[in-house]
Structures are given as C-alpha cells and as structure tokens.
Amino acid sequence: MSALLEVKGLQVHYGGIQAVKGIDLDVHEGELVTLIGANGAGKTSTLNALSGLLKPAAGSITFAGQPLAGMPVHQLITAGLALVPEGRGVFPRLTVAENLAMGAYVRADQAEVRKDLDRMFGLFERLHERRDQKAGTLSGGEQQMLAIGRALMGRPRMLLLDEPSMGLAPLMVQKIIAVIRQVAAEGMTVLLVEQNARLALQAAQRAYVMEGGRISFSDTAHACLNDPRVRAAYLGE
C-alpha cells in the first residue's frame, strides 16, 4: 500500500548550513507518526519543507500521489495538508470564532463549515467559552487549542503538528495530547514533531528519530519507548 506522504532524499539548506541531510520518511493514511529529536536536529525544518514554507534543496515530497515541489502554500492547503506551526500563529486581533473561520477560508460548503465550527467548540470546550474573546488574550494552551482547531476547520487529510506542547502547563499538555489522539482515532493522518519524546511515543504508532539533520533510526513507537538509545537520549533514563 502506498503512503499518503512519501519523502525521499529531502535536503533543506539555510545558506551554507545543511539543516536536513537527505532524509526518507513516509506516513500512511490514518497513521499517527512522530518525529522526535533534540533541538536543532532538523525537525521543524522538515515540517516547513513539507508544508511549503521552505523550498527543499534536493529530494522529493509526494502527497496523495502528487508531487509537491513548487506548489504554492494555498494549493497545499486545498490538497489537504495543514500545518499547526511552532508558536501557534493565531491572529491575535481576531476573536476565537473568527480565527476558526479563517481555517475554512478555502471552503465553499458553508453549511458544513458551521457544523465543523460546532464540532470544534465541542472538541475544545474552553474555546466555546471564549468564542468572542480576542485570540491574543488567550493563554498559551488556549491558543494551541485554537491553532489546532483552525487547522481542522479546513478538513485536511493530514495534520502536521510542530511542538504542540511547548511552553504549556502539564495539565494543558495532557489535554492537547488527548485531543491529538482523539482526532487520530477518528481517522485523521498526523505527523507530530514533539520534543517531549515520552508523550509523543505514547501517542503515536510509529516513530522516526532525527539527529543532526538525519534520520538515525525508525521503529514502532512502542519499540522506541523500550529502546536503550531512546531511553538514554530522550527519556532521561
């Protein structure tokens, strides 16, 4: 069975610095796959290349059988690929409801958009309580919920998540991870970049470990949780 996302020989450069050094990875329909590694390993650069924010120096990216090289970001969104960026990137002067509506700007099925808006408010009850509040006044965890909800409003086939737990209180981290697991269980394909390796591996089905711009190894998430290399390097054991 072919993968929904296939990456072959991906390289990403920043001037003379090679951030991603020829990686291969794939994600199949309905999978929750995580990419873990230390700061500076190349994880965010990889997601930015997949989502069209960075132009790869070499390699190929195929999504749903379609090459993505040179495709504008708005076409990637229409094709079904949605990024929740590191730092969340909400529109601070718009309300919660307006931010969510922005996630559906490429859609014309307004009746279904309204249903999805209600679904987001059911998925994130905190957002329903704050639907008329400016996004810039929300807590970090609430903004992360909003960023995920906004991405889901586009009805993507695949969700790219970059460090969703960063800077959040432990209880909010658990809520965010629970929502990610829920949407994955409902059939959403997810590629999760996460520095909290334990949480990521507990949520995912498969994992890639990235070191120095390269994939050092990959396995099932369960196997990685019990791998001495992962336990020593990322789990503090």
Question: Helix and strand layout, with pairings?
Answer:
Blueprint lengths: L4 E10 L2 E11 L4 E5 L6 H8 L7 E6 L2 E2 L5 H7 L1 E4 L11 H7 L7 H14 L1 H5 L10 H13 L5 E5 L7 H16 L3 E5 L3 H7 L2 E6 L2 E7 H5 L2 H7 L3
Parallel strand pairs: 3-8, 3-9, 6-7, 7-8
Antiparallel strand pairs: 1-2, 1-4, 4-5, 9-10
Helix pairs in contact: 3-6
Describe, in short, the structure shown.
By secondary structure, the protein is an alpha/beta fold. It is 38% helix and 26% strand.
Outline the structure in words.
This protein has helices at residues 43-50, 73-79, 96-102, 110-123, 125-129, 140-152, 170-185, 197-203, 221-225, 228-234; strands at residues 5-14, 17-27, 32-36, 58-63, 66-67, 81-84, 158-162, 189-193, 206-211, 214-220. It has 237 residues and is an alpha/beta fold. It has one domain (5-234): Rossmann fold, CATH 3.40.50. It has a six-stranded mixed sheet with strand order 6-7-8-3-9-10, with helices on both faces. Helix 3 (96-102) runs parallel beside helix 6 (140-152). The termini are far apart.
Which descriptors would you attach to this protein?
alpha/beta; Rossmann fold; 10 helices; 10 strands; 38% helix; globular
